[in-house]
Design brief:
The chain is globular and about 65 Å long. The two termini are 32 Å apart. It folds into 3 domains: 3-55 and 384-432, Urease, subunit C, domain 1 (Roll), CATH 2.30.40.10; 57-256 and 311-376, Metal-dependent hydrolases (TIM Barrel, Alpha-Beta Barrel); 257-310, no CATH class. It has helices spanning 72-78, 96-102, 116-122, 134-150, 167-178, 196-210, 219-223, 228-240, 268-272, 293-302, 315-323, 343-357, 362-369, 371-376; strands spanning 3-14, 19-28, 31-36, 42-47, 52-55, 57-59, 82-87, 109-112, 114-115, 154-158, 184-188, 213-216, 245-249, 255-258, 279-281, 307-310, 327-329, 335-336, 339-340, 392-395, 416-421, 424-428, 431-432. With 443 residues, it is an alpha/beta fold. The strands form 5 sheets. Strands 1, 2, 3, 4, 5, 20, 21, 22 and 23 form a 9-stranded mixed sheet that branches. A 6-stranded parallel sheet has the order 9-10-11-12-13-17. Strands 6-7-8 form a 3-stranded parallel sheet. Bound molecules: zinc ion.
Amino acid sequence: MELDLMIRDGVLVDPVKGTEERLNLGISGDKVAFIGKDEPAAKKVLEAFDLLISPGFVDTHMHDEELDDPGTIQRALLRQGVTTALAGNCGSGPSLERVKEKRNAPWLNLGYLSGHRALREAVGIADVYQPATEDEIARMEKLLENELGLGAFGLSFGLEYAPNTSPREIEALCRVLGKHPKRFVSVHIRHDGPDCLESVTEVIEIAERFRIRVQVSHLGSMTAFGFTARSIELIEEARSRGADVTFDCYPYAAFCTFIGSTVFDPGFEERWGKGLESLEAASGKHRGKRLTPEIYDDMRKNDPQALIIAHVMNEWEIRSCLKHPLCAVASDGVLHNGEGHPRAAGAFPRALRWLREEGLSWAETVRHATTLPADMAWLPVGRLEVGAPADLVVFSPDDIRDRATFEDQLVPPEGIAAVVVNGHVVVENGVIAPAPAGRLLLL
Ligand SMILES: [Zn+2]
């Protein structure tokens, strides 16, 4: 048997066994076909002596909903080593009919969640503050059933963005979801800041009542105002009662969302204990400027989709969230017209560095970016074994680091020697292949 590709002499980091061992890894087609000390013949050989080999990173929380964009965010994630990703989070998942048309050849393996806010818009709810009527709820249930039938991985809520969503509306949609095995609900909770504990409790109750898996989205950015430790305790207590609750986090003390959202309704300064000067325009004509009352008014009125970076969370709490053994790394990468937050280009390398700084072994570190998120979404990836999908990242343990900054948001990371998607080397020494090798994932 001649292998298609041999990655020779690298240190295999196995997040399941917790081992780091110098071995050769061979690929045949889109599968790992050989792991061992021998050297079977291969058409192509990649030398990896100073490098680690990990399963490709798995990002269960990102955004790729601007379907007319040619995949800027996918490429930014791919260069970080992300080989499988789920988009459509925070309530914004687009219809799968459009996804199938626009995302049939993605750069990485890409699935979608159906989005609650998108369902609301589809039944004609234009006002985000408006609770849905019984008739609208019934129509949303049908749409959701259809999206799940087309292959959506689950349902995402962005309750902070649709703040008057009623328990009845949530119940109806969760009951539809609960009829489908191995689908989950991701929730951007109703409140960040001081009321976040109440909101974490709300989603725990959803998981318990409807017996479904709930992923609390970017827990750090919702709670790192003095409430992260208590939020995690609430989740641990719920899990010990049998509730299926998971969570993810990105490694930045600044969040990012659009200026026209409810997040920036009057009152945010008191909520975070921070003034307008902690907000920075991330896209549009004011990009790079700190907000003044005049810029705030101009953007809210004239460019409500423009993104804001809010430097308002406590970094020590984000770090404590990320290193918790249950916490998956997720990018929450989001761009508007190709501009946004550096997490789209740097989240995974940055998270790996932070976790190493916290004293984790490479196997433990990599687990937060591979097996853990994969298992959260029942994705059959995140493992290094014969027969596993040939999705890999080969990187330097000394050199891997994010380089994207708030000023220069899309600079690719350093230290990633190769990224393999479905058996194809799609990034080699920072250079991205001419053609994508990912697949649109439909359940
Ligand atoms: Zn969100």
